[in-house]
Q: What sequence folds into this?
């Protein structure tokens, strides 16, 4: 069953602008991860935030987690053309960590206009 | 190897034929996962292995799908009597342990059933 749902499904912005994507999930989690997928390629891990963390930074990426609302956001600052990709959030179940695999949403397709 | 390797990268087959997809995980990674991604969709969890054992096979779409892992390394996903709805990209991922979060993905095997 689908655990994470990203919003919006598609986002197009100008290079240099900030891009914000949101993820909502249904059940309690151990951690939430964000992955990027370039067209036709495998997924690349971007960042992991644990359930007891509220915010995390990695370079131009900022992730927030609100467990009371069961939601997360991914902010990409100063976007570049190379950031064009699909972005997925993935959650594990509280009961077993990754015991039955991460559950991925359908992704947000981000297009950065040069 | 340096990363997760999947083969073949592309497979075109006729309806009713059997196909085998192979995944060679990162050396030392004990957990291995198979996902399926249909065009423009998110990732559908199929099965995971901890060592050679697959504790949860409930994600396999039908009894035409099977997977095995030998020697705690290479895994094979077999689809018997392929159907057109099996057409998708099959992604393999590995991690050091089931509960260590980050998954490392291969580039996927694109299956087209005519």
A:
């Amino acid at each position: 069953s689908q655990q994470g749902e990203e919003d919006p499904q598609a986002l197009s912005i100008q290079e240099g602008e900030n891009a914000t994507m949101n993820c909502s999930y249904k059940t309690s989690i151990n951690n939430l991860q964000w992955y990027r997928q370039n067209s036709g390629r495998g997924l690349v891990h971007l960042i992991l935030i644990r359930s007891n963390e509220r915010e995390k930074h990695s370079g131009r990426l900022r992730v927030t987690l609100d467990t009371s609302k069961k939601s997360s956001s991914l902010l990409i600052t100063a976007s570049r053309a190379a950031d064009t990709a699909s972005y997925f959030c993935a959650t594990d179940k509280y009961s077993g960590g990754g015991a039955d695999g991460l559950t991925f949403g359908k992704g947000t397709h981000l297009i950065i206009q040069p | 190897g340096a990363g997760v390797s999947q083969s073949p990268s592309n497979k075109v087959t006729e309806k009713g034929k059997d196909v085998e997809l192979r995944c060679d995980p990162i050396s030392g990674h004990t957990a291995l996962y198979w996902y399926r991604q249909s065009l423009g969709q998110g990732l559908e969890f199929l099965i995971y292995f901890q060592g050679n054992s697959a504790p949860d096979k409930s994600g396999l779409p039908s009894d035409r799908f099977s997977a095995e892992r030998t020697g705690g390394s290479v895994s094979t996903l077999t689809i018997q009597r392929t159907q057109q709805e099996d057409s998708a990209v099959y992604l393999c991922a590995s991690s050091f342990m089931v509960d260590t979060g980050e998954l490392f993905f291969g580039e996927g095997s694109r299956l087209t059933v005519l």
Remarks:
- Chain B touches chain A through 26 residues (CB under 8 Å).
- Chain B has one domain: 5-108.
- Residues 10 and 110 of chain B are 5 Å apart (CA to CA).
